[in-house]
Amino acid sequence: MIGKPLVVLGSVNADHILQVKELPRPGETVTGHGYRVVPGGKGANQAVAAVRLGARTAFIACVGEDDFGRRMKDAFQAKGMDTRGIMVEEGMPTGMAMIFVAENGENCIGISPEANACLTPERLAPHLGLIRGASALLMQMETPMETVIMAAEEAKKAGVPVALNPAPARSLPEELLKNLAIITPNETEAAALTGIAIQDAASAMEAAACLHGMGVATVIITLGAKGAFVSAKGRGAVVPGFHVTPVDTTAAGDTFNGALMAALQRGDQLPEAIAFSHAAAALSVMRMGAQTSIPTRKEAEDFLRAQR
């Protein structure tokens, strides 16, 4: 792969996964099976997705001074990722997530940032050159807000388009939103950002218009199995997804984002990039785990051809 890299800035987690019949209600204890620990974290998931789906990728993150963190950095490098921006935090464990996966594929997740919280503006500063030389910057919200703001400002000043997957859901300051080229919330995240409940295409258009008013050029509201509402250049429409039987939805959104940036990096127009992203996400929900579920570029392209 040649050209400038996509730079992903974000989290690295050890995902502790337990399969259960139904997600537990408050105060309820459930018996599960299939417990395992697998690589995760929204930043790592999206970086791995971008690489696997064809993008030249560099990753900026913090991992703990533990075996999991060391193995993750080695694994990223083995995948062909530029790992110069991955820092090992002395005396800290790698971030972790506790994930329940129900039989219908739905999940609930609790996270502890640990080393991810160490990705401060001071730790980012030596790696700003990597961002300034990127084809695009992709971020999420599992690292400190001030770092995300700093990275977006530096990228915008350098003419590097910034994409934000605003997950987990929270309100965002104007100083961040004004520097974004693309935002990719799901329905819950779009509602948290705009105060508008996403119930249909009309409400999605209203939320997108609100985000455009905050300075974001392209708004992509992911709608799960229904596809995505895409709004850019004064036009908005639902781009349908693909109906599959889900096994585990854990990394579907991350796969979509990595695929989107990989497709845009190679020059696909937005409609084609969205279709490719839907295909990759559909394949991911038919497999267990986070990074273990992400398909290759060939698998996504083959699936897309078969569907068409």
From TrEMBL:
Pfam families membership: PfkB
Example of a GO biological process term: D-ribose catabolic process
Activity regulation (UniProt): Activated by a monovalent cation that binds near, but not in, the active site. The most likely occupant of the site in vivo is potassium. Ion binding induces a conformational change that may alter substrate affinity.
Binding site for ATP: N186, T222, L223, G224, A225, K226, G227, G253, D254, H278
PANTHER family for this protein: RIBOKINASE, SUGAR KINASE
Family, per entry: Belongs to the carbohydrate kinase PfkB family. Ribokinase subfamily.
Protein name: Ribokinase
Source organism (scientific name): Desulfoluna spongiiphila
